[in-house]
Design a protein that fits this description.
The complex is a heterodimer. By secondary structure, chain A is mainly α. Chain A is built from 15 helices and 2 strands. By secondary structure, chain B is an alpha+beta fold. Helices cover about 25% and strands about 30% of the residues of chain B. Classes of the chains: A mainly alpha, B alpha+beta. At the A-B interface, α10 and α11 of A face β6 and α4 of B.
Chain lengths: ~325, ~350
Amino acid sequence: MPGLSTAHSVVEPSALSKRIAQGIVILYALLTMIPLAWILLTGFKTPPDSISYPPKLVFQPSLEGYCNLFTTRSRQTPEYIAGLPPAEGMCDEIARSRNMVVAGPSKFVPRFVNSLVIAFTSTLLAVGLGTLAAYGFSRFRVPLADDLLFFILSTRMMPPIAVAIPIYLMYRELGLSDTKLGMILLYTAVNVSLAVWLLKGFIDEIPREYEEAAMIDGYTRLQAFRKVVLPQAATGIAATAIFCLIFAWNEYAFAVLLTSGEAQTTPPFIPFIIGEGGQDWPAVAAATTLFVIPIFVFTILLRKHLLRGITFGAVRK
Amino acid sequence: MAEVRLDAVSKHFGTGEAAVTAIAEMSLTIGDGELVILLGPTGAGKTTTLRLIAGLEKPDAGRVSIGGRDVTGVNPAERDVAFVFQQYSLYPHLSVYDNLAFPLRSPARRVPEAEIRRKVGEVARLLRIEDKLNNRATHLSGGQMQRVAIGRALVRRPAIYLMDEPLSSLDAKLRSDLRLELKRIQQELGATILYVTHDQIEAMTMGSRIGVIDRGRLVQVGTPREIYENPVDLHVAQRLGQPGINLVPRALLPEVPAPPGAHTIGARTEHVRIARAGHADGVGLVRWIERLGDQNHLHVTLRGQDLVTLGEPDSDLSVGDRVGVEFLRPLYFDAAGRRIAAGA
């Protein structure tokens, strides 16, 4: 009925308002992606191109940044270079064109591996411990539950760096300085409070009837937890894992303070690149580009669990 | 299937001042193959009784035994009971088939998959959900979900089926279909069932016996007929009957030969007779006639008191007529609501 359809429905937004909303979202997405795109582009520029003014949007792509990221080089006289056998591989060639020779691999790969090990292990621990603790708080009568939950949350009330000095001293005493274990424990401790709170909310929403039904059907509580609660908490667990991973992956202050060699993660390593032989922005951009990839992949992989609503609604409230 | 006994079971919730008695010294035996109905208003303790038998709650006092075995301290998984919850409580992450198979796949049972397939198929046929087996549990209508929930209990042959208002969320048509279906299944399997409801039609039509429960106490247990005809008190009398029993203060009807101590006179709608002639317990005024097709409900005012009675569909009474009212087989209750025998 055309005469009646002009009224604004509260259920279904009009086509125009939908299009405006889409437009705003796309515009926002593009804006937030500009720095990322800039970094991606800079990674493929030569050092002179990267600092040219006005900035170059069209340029001759080069892998010099990536070569510089993965190698260490030493400066030599042109005569010395001319006397060398032909260059092995592209990176060597680029280095020689700048009067340098490749001296060996850089520390980027081990630092990146450190980041992967520390961030993923601490995320796994924080989410695992958080899920169990949240389940306990949600389902059992825990003495002083409210106070305990407040205490857990209170660890997040100051910036973690405020306790940097005590932790630094403590870690030195315990021999945890510059160890992967030390960083894993630290990030787990910081993340577990967030995990408990986020997951408690999700688990509270899963009706107890599910576990009760499972327990009557011959499952123990732990089996019911695994078979019934975990699959339904998947959304919450995925979201929590992403939050925890992003924190542990990006954390800079503690990493600078507590790691210097063995256990150094990527964030404190990246500024370190700048110092080596001039301001090598393409190498920094290359490192940053590679650094973004794991989080990007992890989020994409968990994306389907983030779509809330598919698993809820079979209990009539 | 087995006999289930509750011996003086009590259950309180909360502590100290705030403690609430959910179940008070309840004793009840559900015989092997019997379908016992627990009937009572919301909050009377019906669900708590089921949860106590299932082991989801531990009694503060008393004993629960199943098949002669004291299970008071035993885990739900080891009690061999099946529970149909009031809410459907299907596992939303599983298909209908997996929901039905879930109890059989429990580590405690370890039924072979071929056997599971056979049993699930059988139950699905019984409940007419064969074509929904591959659906996600969340993609069903309310009635289908409820049937799956019932099916999840029926795939097993437990000592007792505990059903908590399993039909309450369904529409009237489906409810009456499933009511008959459940009764048929129960008789076919010889199943022992404790069935909680606040719907008196379910109670009257399905139960071998009815236990009327009020504020945690079992007020009366008996066959539907006994409960209907011989209620022990006003509460039980009012629970059954649609429209509800007519209750008239004794003082309004001095003509009725009531026993001493009678405070209230109760008469079911079918026991209030309209008599045109002089012989009547009182004269009332027809206020309203509800024509239901097979019968009429006459609303009559007698000395300021409204009564409902049954009338023939072809009756020529009309609103405003004065009619004589006669009470057949009236029930007498004392001031505290307890029943007094007519001859006393």
